[in-house]
Each structure stands twice: as C-alpha cells, then as structure tokens.
Amino acid sequence: MAAIRPATVDDAWPIAEVNVRSWQAAYQGPLPELYLRDLSVEGRAARWQRTLADPAHQGDVLVLVENGSLLGFTAVDRIRGELRAIYLDPARWGTGLGRRLLDTAVAALRDSGHRQATLWVLDTNERAQRFYSAAGWLPDGATKTDTMPGEDIPLSEVRYRIDLVSG
User: Fold this and answer.
1) Smallest Cα–Cα separation from 85: which of 144, 19, 38?
2) In what order do the strands lie in the sheet with 154-163?
3) Which residues pair with 121 in a beta bridge?
4) What does the DSSP assignment read for the chain?
5) pTM of the full structure
6) Do residues 63 and 72 lie in contact, with contact meaning Cβ atoms separated by under 8 Å?
7) Could you report the per-residue pLDDT of 70-100, keeping only the tens digit for each?
8) Cα(27)–Cα(77) distance, rounded to whole angstroms?
9) Which of 26, 53, 23 is nearest to 40 (CA)?
C-alpha cells in the first residue's frame, strides 16, 4: 500500500526523477522534443534539495511512497493557497494514486485555513485539465503566459480554482 508523507532532503533525487519523467511524458507535443530530452535530473535534484532544506517550505512537499520507491509528489503554497505541482510516475497514471496525492494536497490547503485554492495548468495539457475537473476544480477565466527559465519557450496557462469549504 502506498503511503503519503512529508518530503525530506533525501527525497530530492527521486522527486527530480519523477519530475523529469512526468514532464517528458506529459508535455510531448506542447514542448520541443530537444528540450524534453535534455531535461536534467541532476539540475532538478539540486533545486529540490534547496527547496526541501529551506525551513520556510517544511511540509509543503508531500511524497507518495510504495515499497521504498517514490512514485509521485505534490507541492503546495500554504500561504497563497495554491497547488504548485503534482507529478506521478507515468507508469502509474490512471491508477488512482494521482487522485490520492491531489486529495492530500487539497486537505493540506484546507487545513492551512484557505477557503479556496488555485492552480495553473498548461492550456494544451488536456489530460491534466480533465484530471482536475474530475476532482471538482474549474477554470476561473484567468490566463497567463510564462517562459521557461533560461529558455525562449512560451507557456500559456489557465488557472483552475476549487472551493475548499464545500469541495
């Protein structure tokens, strides 16, 4: 049985591995193939290690672990009431584990006193949009365009929102 627990600094590398594999699977098409192929687990692990070592982020990252293997993770911003990330090993998509992670993140945001929560998703990521909609999240009309750090790749995103009081 998979368990969800707060992430530790020791989880940085497996989080980065799941992060990269998920990006490579989810963003084929919307993002350039060369960019996805060159994603660095090492680079992401360094960023995750800094995040997980920062006391200001304690409890913001939760990991899903089964038989000692990290299968997925979620990151929330408890101050802003925002789901910042949710990634699951692509081999586990469609198993219900992603929904468990999402429900845990929503509970964390609710427990931190928020009445609503938001998240941003690529406008081309229809799979993720269906996933969030099935869990009660709805687009609220807000959009933005970001660029990947160090890249000239525009990312058009839509914001989703959920009511934490009744959701």
Assistant:
1) 19
2) 3-6, 61-66, 69-77, 82-88, 116-122, 154-163, 138-147
3) 158
4) --EEEE--GGGHHHHHHHHHHHHHHHTBTTB-HHHHHT--HHHHHHHHHHHHH-GGGTTTEEEEEETTEEEEEEEEETTTTEEEEEEE-GGGTTSSHHHHHHHHHHHHHHHTT-SEEEEEEETT-HHHHHHHHHTT-EEEEEEEEEE-TTS--EEEEEEEEEETTT-
5) 0.92
6) yes
7) 999 999 999 999 999 999 999 999 999 999 9
8) 23
9) 23
Q: Tokens for 52?
A: 């997980």
pLDDT of residue 1: 85
Rounded distance, CA 100 to CA 63, Å?
Answer: 11
| Cβ-proximal residues to 146 (8 Å cutoff; 6+ apart), any chain | 154, 155, 157
Region for residue 24 given its phi and psi (left: phi exceeds 0; alpha: psi -120 to 50; beta: otherwise): alpha
Report the alpha-carbon distance of residue 73 to residue 63 in Å, rounded.
4
Per DSSP, the residues of 94-136 read: TSSHHHHHHHHHHHHHHHTT-SEEEEEEETT-HHHHHHHHHTT
Residue 143 falls in which region: left (phi positive, over 0), alpha (psi -120 to 50) or beta: beta
